[in-house]
Structure prediction request, 249 residues.
Amino acid sequence: MRKYDQSNLIVHPGNSTDPDVIVEVTPELAGWDYVHFQLRRLPAQRSWTFTTGEHELVVVPLSGRVRVESNWGQWSRIGERDSVFHGLPYALYLPRHTSLTVNSETACEYAVALAPTDQDHPPRLVTPPDIEIEIRGGDNATRQINNIIPAGPEGFTFQRIYTAPESPLHRAGFPIDAVLLAQDNDAVLVPEGYHPVTSPPGYTTYYLNVLAGSAQSLANSEDPRYTWVKENYRSRDSRVPIYDVTPHV
Prediction:
């Protein structure tokens, strides 16, 4: 079992030999079994080709627009936003045993997430009207959650990752209690435990969560020492949602 601390819980950009990859997290690097993640970029009118093998895959454009061709069909005009702060996302889910090519209709950045599977599901294009939106928290902790595929810009943020005594890592003698300074395009590993995130005044933080595992559940638990914070919210920040989602909420 791996010991995690500030030195290996954050992955900085530039760790791939592929020049089109901004940052990459492999299961070997992370010390887990499932998630393989890449943040990729393409200039306009370029392409990237890949075969999923025994993995299912999702493509999430963060900026720009792409077209995807595959042995399951093709989809065009995926993504219509200038950045993650300028509209709801698109995503394309593709099953295992897929051969695909991502073609950039404009200059773009897009996330690719893979996980091993022994199940077969049909391809699915997720468009902004499909997104489930939640507004959580309150006061300076108000946040907008875009559920892209539910179960079944510059700036910086602080993230603390820490385990409770009953967690597997903690019981094995490898507790986590690390505070991380995450900057633009960093990837943060959360093998288990609580993981609160905070931004300095004046900043809006975006992060894309990728989860995979043997239990298809998003059940969460809260640190009982800090439940009083939620109980004392006075209002929600009026700047959230950060763009128009009137048809969705």
User: Anything to note?
Assistant: The mean pLDDT is 90.
